[in-house]
Amino acid sequence: RANEIKKLCGVAGDIFDLPLRYFTNINFERAAIPEIRQLLGVTSATDLAYKIFPPVLFPGLKDDKSLKTVFGNWELLARILKASLHGITSLQGSSGSGTHTNSLKWSVQQVTPGSIAWVAVIAIFLMSPDTEFLSTGIGKKSNINYKNLFFHYKKILVIKWTMKCIVAIVANINQYIFKAAKVLALKGAEQEDFTDAIDRALAALDMDSDSGNE
């Protein structure tokens, strides 16, 4: 995990269209950079209050209180996932079809709710003040609970997986990463194993009820 994140730090400048030194220098104070604070929805360099759904997850970096467009910034998420699955050189036009790519190692042919949730968390981590992804899932400097973010995002994606907006996001990401013109978006959800208890918990959730929470 640490090695994969280190590789992503090396191309984070290209991913976020920001200077590379922001991400490769572990001593760099990312919290002091206005552009990064904007992506994370942080208004002050001293009072670092992080949102559950930061602007970086929305199209046009526009915070949507209704959450109807959450994960709509699909191209940024797709770039991170592509670099992880096909190698960092794939972002520069390489086919990324080598025998040692993670996509082949993990037999990944299309995205799932878990993979989108994971890449959303990684996007936040890369911009955070944290320099390592701890086993606790909680940022040492930011105090962001990455583990909770992952499960929260994944639950939302599972519930909304068949909604038109999510289907479009999944299709766009699959096309970007796998060059698949037509994909069965539903299979991504079916491939993941959920127990009846989890299904009942997910069914009880209502994304709209979270619209007032940040």
Kindly list the characteristics that best describe this protein.
disordered C terminus, mainly alpha, about 210 residues
Could you explain the architecture of this structure?
With 214 residues, the chain is an all-alpha fold. The protein has one domain (2-210). The chain contains eleven helices and no strands. The protein has helices spanning 2-9, 12-16, 21-24, 34-40, 74-86, 102-105, 113-127, 146-159, 164-178, 185-190, 196-204. Helix 5 (74-86) runs parallel beside helix 9 (164-178) and helix 7 packs antiparallel against helix 8 (146-159). It is globular, with a radius of gyration of 17 Å. InterPro entries: DUF6698 (IPR046521).
Strand residue content: under 5%
Helix/strand order, N-terminal first: HHHHHHHHHHH
Count of helical stretches: 11
How many whole angstroms does the radius of gyration measure?
17 Å
Q: In total, how many domains does the architecture comprise?
A: 1
Cα shape:
globular
Q: Percent helix among the residues?
A: 40-55%
Largest sheet features: none
Q: What is the total tally of β strands? A: 0
- Mean of residue pLDDT? 80
**Termini separation:** 28 Å
Low-confidence stretches: 180-214
Q: What structural category arises from helix and sheet content?
A: mainly alpha
Pfam families: DUF6698 (PF20414)
InterPro entries: DUF6698 (IPR046521)
